[in-house]
Amino acid sequence: MSATQQPAMGESSIHPAGESTNGTKEWQEMLETEKAGLVERVYDLERQVLEHKDEIVCLKSTLADVLRRLATIDNAYEHSTSGSGRGGTGTVAGGGGGLGASHSTAATTAGQGGIGDSVAAGSGQNSLSSKSFRFSRNTLTRLNSSVEEKRFGRVPSRVTSSPSRIKTTLAQKAIHYSNGSLHSDSLSSHSISPAPSPSPKQPNASTNAHHALLASSGMGKRWSSTGDFISTPGSPSGTGSTGSMSRFSAKSLLNLSGHSSRQGNSHPYVQRKNDDDEYVKLYISGRPIVIHIPEAQLPTYDLTKVQPAPNRRLRLDWAYGYRGKDCRSNLYQLPTGEMVYFVAAVVILYNMDEHTQRHYLGHTDDVKSLAVHPNKLLVASGQCGGTEGRESLPHILIWNSVSLATLNQIGCGEFTGAINCLSFSRADSGNILAAIDDSPDKIISIWDWQKKEGGRKITETKCSVDTVVAVEFHPLDKGQIITIGKNHIAFWSLDQHGMLYKRMGVFESFEKPKYVTAISFTQTGDVVTGDSSGNLAVWKRGTNVISRFLKKVHEGPVFTICALRNGGFVTGGKDGLLLLFDDALHMKADQIVEEHFGAVRVVAQGKGSQLLIGTTKNCILSGDFTLSLVPIVMGHTDILWSLSTHPQVAQFVTGGKDRLLQLWDSLSHSVVWSKDIGEPIHSVQIANGGEVVVVGGGTGRWSVFDIVTRELLATYTDGQDVIQCMQFSPDGNLLALGSKDNCIYIYQCTKVPHRFSKIGKCTGHSSFISHLDWSKDSQVLRSNSGDYELLYWNPTLCRQITSQSTVKNLEWATQNCSVCFETIGIWPENFDGTDINSVCKDGEEQFLVSADDFGKIRLFSFPASQPKSLSHSYRGHSSHVTAVQFMHDGVRLLSAGGLDTSVLQWRVV
Asked: WD repeat positions in this chain (predicted)?
């Protein structure tokens, strides 16, 4: 090769390399551009998929609502044509006892497939009872052609998961069932709740065939379609009508055998030495109370007789209140038009447009958490531990929001604390469920909730040593879970083998808050959190670091972040502010919540631009950023001690430790007015004329308020202790006040409703006064005290009547005293004297109702003078029930919960 050619060759050899380098750079730039464009297209595709999913969910939910309404119309039609009376004997499932037969608790049609299969929910031998839709055969045929597819005294202690406290004997189950516990049977009740199955019985051939038909119809599929209304065979709630009939029959037989087997010539706690004795001795907490038998009862009174339960029942009509003071993420709008929230042991589905409530009563104690399935039809609710055996251990219930049927009970015996956080997976159509056990170790557990009865626990691990306030599945990334709480945010990954891996959030140079208090997601999958310092942070999808930080958005903690359908956000905090952000987190508007409603606890998007706001003072408000916020649910915020019904109209007053005196209307189910009187309220009473309300305070002071204007009219003082109870005489001339100083103060009523003239005080009790009753002629007063004494008084002389024989035949205007002849039968054996807090009777003296420390309302026949009188038992409260009282019409009953701060309105059916 020549020397002159070398440079040329050198240049030639170098030039291609330069071209190669430049080409590589251009190629990389092109790849990066394509990659960025691809990412944008993927994000856009994910957004479109989510939009389509929402549309499908809305269509499914609208169909579900149509089916619910069809079922209601169909039931109403069958009720009108069945000819069954209220007091008739039930001939279909759910009509136990004296209920009419026309309301079936489960459809019996097993064929047809699709909706027919879903509605015909079979029951395993050990399943929990439930109620479901009931369609006629013609209705099912039509639907299947177009569609293929629920105080006074101490506060009872909680238990966690101690197996030693579980009671499972047959006798105990019999007694439990004899009172109809955990459910309200009625002609038109929508309050559906599961109950433990009765004792095992041999299945008949028809039942087995029925179950086999259901099993072959595909009922074991996953619950993700609108056709999945009722639980699978063997689930805790599934029951056909045959199963229900046998359950109620077995319950009645167990009821009788459970009680009659213990009958003898006397009872350990009620004794009558001779048949000629005119008195009995009632032993409460070992103390004998002598109670004289009325002369009319002497010839026939026999301790061995069993007094039957009344032939009518109670049905939960309305639940007043909301739990926002210490719970989060417990308010949701369902596409069917109902909002779902909870108070006490009741999950409420409220339709604001129709002003109607339905109630899920499957829980046995405080509901603490709520989660809605991605299909918007199924709901998971978690509770804390109660006091009565296995059924009251902390657990999760999965149920259908249309039929209110329980699909599965998860984790009974697996949790040691309350379930305070729940979340369905979102990227895989809700196949799994995450739960946080509020135990000392704060355990996170993952459940395949559709696997068999009780679900299958995939895994669990210790979550944090500190408080966890929320758990959420990532909406786009399968198996990704985020937990937040004190001093942390954690990003979890669940692999295909069921193992959980955790990465802690890194705050780097940003301010690390004491609490991460709220969480939501952008449409592109980024995580948005709020903290206790009022800051917002954005965590890039797939990372554990902050990509954007908005400082001091709120003054104080951010309690909630609600992702809107248009991609924007609404935040709410302790400062009472609602802030509206667009999808780029630029603030667009604000709204203030009035201070007396409390701070913003949770925000949910309602219909259109409407917002639902739950507050820390147990209120739910409705509105948006252009209109003022309107309260739609109000309640008390601390221990509720007293209630009194109006003598002429459908109103009642309540008062409690939160110092709020509230007048309610039981027909419109709303608060007429609310007033902070400046001190805790221990007793209330509406005067016979209905013009004034008398309120007993904590330092011997009692006040009189105008019932219309709520104006304070007068104040009086007697002693220096709590005014525990008060009662007007039937003729309206006298007022008796029972104090914690063991005295009863008697006042003369004047022509001016708020002016009273003191007559004197009755002394003789050795403990605080707990209950007062007047005789119908207003001449005699009787009283109970904290040590279970029963004393009688001449009120005009303020002297004790020591001879019970002179007053034993009197008729009493009210039935407030829990220790007397009429209430002997309400005391179970081995009860503490403080366990029954309140009793009452209706105006026609057909029913006697008792309220106890275990959250139960019991309905007896009046008088319940036989030991261990049979009753119907109802649950809805999760705390000691401090007061019960019938309305003036005798058809509606009100009960006040203590710590659960709720008022429940029941109807006699």
From this structure: 633-665, 762-794, 874-909
